[in-house]
């Protein structure tokens, strides 16, 4: 089925945006992150049905993270190690997060009011200069959820902290996570009433 058939003759209007701002050259939409409830079901779908390959898995005490992607050259096998080495320079990757216990509908660690308890979690953008990127976010009054160098709290991700029977970041992940920033963009986009996170 072609795009025209899907759109039922509602032809899309070609974009007329000018060149991207010079300060954003080198920004790359690296991955989308989805929260999952059952890794076995999700991995079967994304790997066996859609053909994505597992790049790496991070198994924590409270959660497991799976990164998947297609080989760079269609039809050519790439090992997990090759995919891993290229991951920061790629587009179209998929991050799946399974918070252990979340498969239970009544799991008590979720805060009830959080807008992304399941499903879409964030988009990940790689940038050539984190400090310049964050300065740009601040210049444009983008709400910073977690800045470079800070550690996230469970509440940032809709989870109760360890003191409330929930989960906390494991110490071994502290340094890599300090290099990541999260911003809230939904108030700018005006699309969703909740929060949409972008990670850098």
From TrEMBL:
Q: Output the Pfam families linked to this UniProt entry.
A: Glyoxalase (PF00903)
Q: Where is the VOC domain?
A: 28-174
Gene3D superfamilies linked: 2,3-Dihydroxybiphenyl 1,2-Dioxygenase, domain 1
Q: What is this protein called?
A: VOC domain-containing protein
